[in-house]
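USER: My hope is that you can spare some time for a protein that puzzles me. I am handing you a single protein, as its sequence and its fold in token form. Walk me, if you will, through where the backbone shape changes along the chain. The protein I mean follows directly.
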Amino acid sequence: MQLRPVLTERDINRDLLRPVLATPLWFYFLMGGLAIGVCVAIGGFAWAINHGTGVYGINRPVMWGFLLVNFVFWVGISHAGVMLSAILRLSNAEWRRPATRAAEVLTIFALGTAALHPLFHTGRPWRIYWSMPPGYDLGRGIWPDIRSPFVWDPTAISTYLTGTTLFVILLLIPDLAVLRDRSSGLMHKVYGFMSLGWKGNTRQWKLQIIAGFLLSALILPVFVSVHSIVSWDFAVQIAVEGWNATIFAPYFVIGAVHSGVAGVISVLALLRWMFRWENYIRDDHFDALARLMIVVATAWFYFFVIEFLLGIYPNEEPELSLRMLQVFEWPFSATFIIFVLMGYVVPVPLWLFKKVRTNVALMFWTTLMVNIGMWLERFIIIIPSLMRKQPLTFNWGSYNPSPIELILVAGSFCLVFLGVLTFSKFFPIIPLADAKEGVALETHVRVGKVMVPAAYREE
């Protein structure tokens, strides 16, 4: 099925190590531009610390604004790592090979960036100390609600981040050994230390493969728990219309996979264009990923429709009022239409055509549309519900994002892409070992009158 060109180990080493060993000049300009964006965001946060949270557009009753919309968005993007790396590894999907490490790296930087947003939101990050052990001020009778999902958020996110980082390091070891053998000076020592004495013998490969499968299986429950707990941040708040829904956990998890896999496809398209990796990130990979996206997007759309209908079904005036606000009142009506069009209605029918699925430019733009739609979905869930949080109409409010919030949101995108590019400067973003294994498994040799696979996978 796969249109695989003939590649030798030398070709793979040369092509996939090019960004590390012979970085082009434009790469540094790109990193410099992203670093400037991050510096501007740091300046915006410093301004917020100096002047307080009044510089944000949040107000009573809309106490969660763009920053927490962005937090949920980046947590969602982080789900691509496990979906593409762990699940597809366990199912032995051959087409996963070029996408796994990019998905894992995107997971690490997206999750790390998401974890910064509660700090931005507080405006006084050092006060986080009082919200977790040992900062609980029990001596003054301030008792935290340990049943709150806010207590579990840091635990789930830090566990997922730790597990994904271990996953990346473990699967990176054989590639680090290749870099160790091809570098000199200080970097030779650094890669030598990080490769942990890897020699590529049978025992090391066996242990590495077993550890990879074990980590894949162990990380799956964490993967489900992270966005489930994030969804409970909303679902347990019975005072907010539109949030108190039992369907939120699976709805959030499948939505996270939808946006995460779309994000990985966008990154793969960029990597293919930047490093001319047409032989490694091929059209048939985009074809397979688009087929996966059709299934995931349709499952997400089903949960979206069910969640919306369940809100209308009780025929309660506050809930109906909220849905009217989301769908028919400006500017949320425009946001809602763009969200539905970009999140499902436009891209999924296009992916039904193979010409679209194998067109890299179209896949890039359609997956970018998905993530714009999914960001707006989080906006639609959070902001209108908070505007109508109070039962008395004179307590209703509105929300307009401030320039500082816009700068922080833009800075978060720069930070994630700067992180991915920095990683690709020092480590192969496509696994060398996976690429070589794929070639070995595809190679056939003649035995007598028939062609047979040169290597068999040990099940």
